Amino acid sequence: MGRSDLLRSCLPVPPVPVQSSARLSVDRTKTAPSLSRHLPLRVPTRTTLECSVRRPRGLQLSVPPETLDWPVAVQPREGRVEICINNQWGTICDDSWDERGVNLVCSALYNEQIVGEMVDPEEFSGVEDLPILMDDVKCRGMESNLLSCPQLQLNASHDCTHMEDVAISCTGTRRCQNGEIALAGGQYVSEGTIQICLDGVWGTVCDDLWDPTDAGVVCNILGYTNGSAIALRGAHFGQGTGPIHLDNVICTGSETSLLDCRSSPHNCGHYEDAGVICPAPQDADANCTNGDIRLADGDNEYQGRVEVCLHGNWGTVCDDGWDNRDAGVVCNQLGYTGGFPSAVSNAGFGRGSGLIFLDNVDCDGTEPNLLQCRGNEPGNHNCGPSEDAGVFCPDPTANCSNGDVRLAGGTTEYEGRVEVCIGGAWGTVCGDSLWDDREASVVCRQLGLPNKYSIAVGDAAFGPGEGLVLIRSMQCNGSESALLNCRYSTPSPFSFFCRSHSSDASVVCHGKD
Question: Does the keyword Glycoprotein apply (predicted)?
């Protein structure tokens, strides 16, 4: 295979996450660690069959001829940096290049946080026929890959020669400084298990008392200052190694080092390692965009468990304070307008599998995005997945509209089992201890029936209904114009209360206003 074949086989480099915290030692006698989660790389082996063993990856270090007798499995630790852009390999001009770019390349190539330095490109030959693809690269040190560095010029005009090519040496592990922070185990550089340096040794932080204020200090230290940090517990990104340096961390939010926060010796295991998701600029390959909404596990696109995107990850919403106004914001954001949105609580569409991002959501109903509603700081909650919130949005294909009510099973139009339409389907109301004459009055008023002396009846007095029990714990003040304007909850699929039709609510409508 010749160089022209290699040029045709190389891949464009998409922005792909790189772990920012790996700290593997440099050892020229060992093979390189797995690169499967990193920027597509193309790393040459030092062999006389150099072209045939080079893999089409995305970055490579060119190799000096005198080292071609190295074992095939060993990767070079120094060389001229080459990058693949638009199916073509080329070099990088050293204008504006500094140690931050060096360390980014070293980390991408070797999956470790190591010290790198610039070296003379004339030591490395064999690139005269390659174009110079990048110039004026100014990395800030927090990018996920080289193409994310600002002020870079791709395939643009430049004033460089190959005498100015970037060449580097990834020379060894560096001793960390007290208070230095790194993140490990995350999919993106802006998230992971927190690792902190103390006396030259990396260790972790116990999650006792760990909250968004503490997480915010970590993110500020790392340069992620736009937005809210999410505090994670229970070794969410995996357990760390080494000592646990801090426990019971209490920050005010203004500290410039986590060591300036109050803390105490620990009584923890690594299964309690603290983590964080920082508000980083959106990665191009992220799963979603901040504030995106989707509905999961419903019978159709108009219903389901509410899932929201933060920092490229999907998470759920806790049902504390979740009501129809909040549901309306979700439905409007998704374009399902009109009708009567209905809130669902108690994981009515099943439990989510991701993080719980939002709690105590309090919308006024006019917000264009759920993240603009009032509520706890993202990630700050006291909920479990059995409290995941959901919605029924207006369904234009349904046989009934959200909030419609009807009476069934009675001998006259003035009495019967109460049935309500939610999510395009009819279901019943649980006649629990909160079902009383005030709720009966609202039902009769909504139907245009006499309601002054309406009577609430429970225990499926007009026979058990069919379908789902859709509503429980109704709390009306008696003046509402529609039943779904009252406060209510949805039965949990994980409890037996109100799950059968033996307690279906009914009404008898009497009297005129």
Answer: yes
Tens-place pLDDT, residues 18-28: 322 222 222 22
pLDDT for 442-495, tens place per residue? Answer: 999 999 999 888 999 988 899 999 888 888 889 999 999 999 889 888 766 544
pLDDT in tens, 276-319: 988 866 554 566 888 899 999 988 899 999 999 987 788 999 99
**How many independent structural domains does the chain possess?**
4
DSSP track, 221-253: HHT--SS--EEE-SSTT----S-EEEEEEE--S
Please identify which residue in the block is written with the tokens 């389907």: 425
Write out the two tokens for 75: 């990767």
Q: What percent of the chain has pLDDT over 90?
A: 31
Same domain, 221 and 323: no
User: Three-state DSSP class for 442?
Assistant: helix
Q: What is the reported pTM?
A: 0.51
Q: State which of 152, 173, 194 marks the end of a domain.
A: 173
Show Cβ contacts of residue 21 under 8 Å, excluding neighbours closer than 6 positions: 113, 182, 183, 184, 185, 192, 193, 195
Most confident of 36-45, 74-83, 125-134: 125-134
Whether 49 and 161 share a structural domain: yes
Map residue 484 onto helix, strand or coil.
helix
Closest CA relative to residue 324, chosen from 491, 484, 469: 484
**Shared domain check, 265 and 150:** no
Phi, psi (rounded to 5 degrees) for 390: -140, 180
Domain hosting 375: range is: 293-392
Instruction: Pick the last residue of a domain from 337, 366, 392.
Output: 392
Q: What is the rounded CA–CA span in Å between residue 407 and residue 435?
A: 16
Tens digit of pLDDT for each residue in 405-443?
999 999 999 999 999 998 778 889 998 888 999 999 999
Identity at 48, one-letter amino acid code: T
SS3 labels along 383-433: CCHHHECEEECCCCCCCCCCCCEEEECCCCCCEEEEEEEECCEEEEEECCC
Decide if 123 is inside a domain. Answer: yes
- The values of phi and psi at residue 81, to 5°, are -80, 130
CA within 13 Å, CB half, 314: 13
Determine the average pLDDT of the residues in 341-350.
88
Cα dist. 398→300, 324, 394 in Å?
A: 11, 19, 8
Three-class secondary structure assignment of 111-133: CCCEEEEECCHHHCCCCCCCCEE
- Map residue 218 onto helix, strand or coil: helix
- What is d(CA 335, CA 205) in angstroms, rounded to the nearest whole number? 43
